[in-house]
Design goal:
With 470 residues, the chain is α/β, with parallel strands linked by helices. The chain has helices spanning 33-42, 77-96, 107-127, 144-151, 168-171, 177-184, 195-209, 236-244, 246-258, 278-290, 313-333, 350-359, 374-382, 398-401, 413-425, 428-444, 447-460, and strands at residues 6-12, 15-19, 25-29, 47-52, 69-72, 133-137, 156-160, 189-192, 217-220, 223-229, 264-271, 299-306, 341-344, 362-365, 389-393, 406-408. The strands form three sheets. It has an eight-stranded mixed beta sheet, with helices on both faces. The radius of gyration is 23 Å and the shape is globular. The model is unreliable at 19-26 and 465-470 (pLDDT under 50).
Length: 470
């Protein structure tokens, strides 16, 4: 792996703006999947992280966090509305997740997306040493690689897409499809979560541009762009150590006691998002109760659904629907002191999450479509006694690696109900064998393995575009 200073360019900085008890503003590591993935690497590598701090207006000057230099890219209220809430999360996000919700298209959103991507590219160009390495992250910044190559042809540029990349027939709906592909093709190496995503991308490039393209290499503008699948992972050892801590084990026992010491605890931890299959899961659980297969006193569902993108209309509607359904189920099947569903919308720190993971007999991770889903991997890493059952959607990227999970099609309500019962009633010897196999896989394919495989591949990519030959 190169020893050059690494510059990470991502929509968000690896911190959240929090208010301390004395009213002072402080900056902490944020809990997002990307931050959790890259944080272990950045602690041991000279690095700069370029991103948005989460607010609008002038960019605040931030101190280093864990030795990582932070540079803030400002967003105006219009940028936030049209780039972040608009093109990124109301056009690209639904389209990339199989159009579970209908994507919206507005010209001013595209203009904002271009404007903000150029601002990020310029920030990276100014702050990267000659011949340095820039790693651009995710769908918010798909134009940055090509813009950055124009500004700094001496750089080695990587791009990684954390979300799914859609089939060609879906992507072709985008009014600005060619510009988005050309933006990504500015990179030396384009990484995806799954081989199918790399295949989809290569097919599109060949179709739209008529250039030689395989699932591994694309020849365009006299350059070779490498393409590949690099499934993202977690810090397996860190989560296992946290889950094994006596305080976390004691907290898990107290949580179970607070639930009334039921025979079974089912846990789901999601962002409030229409891709996560929350409504399908609630319906399956309520029908199991109604059919008499599950009794509320014996089996408890804990649903954590942390709000996100609350100003986007589709998310407001989803939250209202979920809360109505939880209220209906609890009203119909719960008793005083015994709700059928314990519904929580606040975020949890990692120690509390680890305690929840240790408490749960069944972890239900059933998104309709997900690039990876690190919650599934965190649950497996936290099961330090090799117990517990993972119910996992076939449409989560993690299903490719965690094949010993109880795999399910979340669109099939009857199948979802049956597999949930299978996980609840499984022979402990079977669940232990499955969990051991998945934990061994995660030990061998942790976050450091992911980072090493991607950056080594980037380092081996043909250097292109530098007229000086350096």
């Amino acid at each position: 792996m190169r020893q050059s200073t690494l510059v990470v360019v991502a929509n968000r900085l690896p911190v959240d703006d929090s208010v301390a008890p004395d009213g002072a503003c402080e900056w902490r590591r944020s809990p997002g999947g990307l931050v959790s993935a890259l944080h272990p690497l950045l602690q041991h590598t000279p690095a700069t992280w370029i991103g948005w701090a989460g607010g609008t207006g002038p960019a605040p000057a931030l101190p280093d966090v864990d030795g990582v230099r932070l540079h803030t890219v400002p967003l105006t209220p219009e940028d936030f509305r049209d780039h972040y809430e608009g093109f990124a999360n109301a056009t690209l996000w639904p389209l990339y997740h199989d159009a579970v919700e209908q994507p919206e298209h507005h010209r001013r959103w595209w203009e904002a997306y271009q404007r903000v991507n150029r601002r990020f590219a310029e920030a990276a160009a100014e702050r990267t040493e000659r011949g340095g390495v820039v790693w651009v992250q995710d769908y918010h910044l798909q134009l940055v690689p090509a813009l950055l190559r124009e500004l700094r042809p001496d750089l080695r540029i990587g791009f990684f897409l954390h979300v799914p990349f859609p089939p060609p027939e879906l992507f072709m709906q985008l009014p600005r499809r060619a510009e988005l592909l050309r933006g990504m093709l500015g990179a030396d190496l384009i990484g995806f979560q799954r081989p199918q995503a790399a295949h989809n991308f290569a097919q599109l490039v060949a179709k739209l541009f008529g250039v030689p393209a395989t699932d591994r290499r694309i020849e365009v503008d006299g350059r070779t762009v490498r393409v590949g699948a690099f499934p993202v992972s977690i810090d397996t050892a860190e989560m296992a150590a946290l889950a094994a801590h006596p305080d976390v084990a004691a907290r898990a026992a107290r949580l179970r006691q607070d639930l009334g010491d039921p025979e079974h605890v089912i846990l789901s931890v999601d962002r409030m998002d229409y891709t996560k299959g929350i409504e399908h899961r609630l319906k399956a659980y309520s029908e199991l109760i109604a059919d008499g297969h599950v009794k509320v006193r014996d089996t408890v569902l804990v649903q954590v659904a942390v709000p996100s993108r609350e100003r986007v209309g589709q998310y407001q509607i989803l939250r209202d629907r979920v809360e109505r359904e939880v209220g209906r189920i609890n009203g119909e099947f719960g008793r005083v002191g015994e709700p059928a569903i314990h519904y929580l919308t606040q975020p949890f720190d990692r120690a509390e999450l680890a305690a929840l993971y240790r408490m749960a007999d069944v972890m239900a991770v059933t998104p309709l479509r997900d690039g990876m889903n690190l919650v599934a991997k965190e649950y497996v890493a936290a099961r330090v006694d090799d117990t517990g059952a993972l119910l996992l959607s076939e449409f989560a990227g993690a299903a490719t690696e965690l094949s010993q999970a109880y795999l399910v099609n979340p669109h099939d309500l009857e199948g979802l109900k049956q597999m949930l019962l299978t996980a609840l009633r499984a022979d402990p010897a079977d669940t232990t064998a499955r969990m051991r196999a998945m934990r061994e896989h995660l030990r061998r394919h942790d976050i450091r393995s992911w980072v090493r495989s991607y950056l080594d591949a980037l380092d081996d990519s043909p250097r292109s575009g530098d007229p000086t030959g350096h």
